[in-house]
Write a structure and sequence with these properties.
There is one protein chain. The protein is mostly helical and 189 residues long. It has 2 domains: 62 residues, no CATH class; 115 residues, Helix Hairpins, CATH 1.10.287. 63% of the residues lie in helices and 2% in strands. It is built from 6 helices and 2 strands, in the order αββααααα. The protein has a two-stranded antiparallel ribbon. It starts with a helix and ends in a 7-residue tail after the last helix. Bound molecules: magnesium ion. The site of magnesium ion has 4 residues, from helix 4 and helix 5.
Length: 189
């Protein structure tokens, strides 16, 4: 989440009209009708602005997003845990993660990336009109490419775990650092 996106959410929240039946608690009172019983009667329609100033609303949005970003990371971590469990389980690959050196995991990862490259080579041949006998049709080749890229990622995750790298955090941190370095911020939705 970028600073621009946070600002956008804060501004939208501050303009948001509270529901007609909103019920403040904690000793706060709200009268729906102003000047009730007089000829100057009017309806009060508070927005988020009545609750918080810009700075306070920004703090609230940041609080909301902290959880959201953790969720994304947790999902990735849950996948890593599942990946490792299957790798090591007796009913899985029976392969302790430390049974291979980082170089072994790297070789496996690069092997899958090579398989992806081989599929892409066939896609390139089809593009150039020089398809070899036995090459699968292009839509099937794209399915195979997806499989090989997925295999690469699965091994890459095991390589990261074998070397003590938390891939979810590492990717997030590196991506954000690079964005900052080049002055990039994602477009506001
Ligand atoms: Mg493969």
């Amino acid at each position: 989440m970028t600073e621009g996106q946070i600002k956008h959410m804060v501004e939208r929240f501050l303009r948001w009209k509270l529901p007609e039946n909103f019920a403040p608690d904690g000793g706060i009172q709200f009268e729906t009708t102003g000047n009730a019983g007089t000829q100057y009667e009017y309806k009060r329609e508070p927005t988020g602005t009545n609750l918080f100033d810009f700075q306070q609303a920004t703090a609230m949005v940041r609080f909301m997003l902290a959880d959201w970003q953790d969720e994304v990371r947790l999902e990735m971590r849950a996948f890593s845990a599942e990946n490792r469990q299957r790798c090591e389980a007796q009913n899985g690959f029976k392969h302790p993660i430390n049974g291979w050196s980082p170089s072994d995991w790297m070789t496996a990862t690069m092997g899958e990336l090579g398989e992806a490259a081989n599929v892409l080579k066939k896609i390139n041949r089809a593009r150039d009109g020089v398809t070899n006998v036995g090459d699968a049709p292009v839509p099937r080749l794209y399915e195979q490419l997806a499989d090989e890229i997925a295999d690469t990622f699965i091994y890459l995750d095991l390589l990261a775990q074998a070397t003590g790298v938390d891939l979810a955090s590492a990717v997030r941190a590196k991506f954000d650092r690079t964005s900052k370095k080049i002055g990039y911020s994602a477009p506001t939705p």
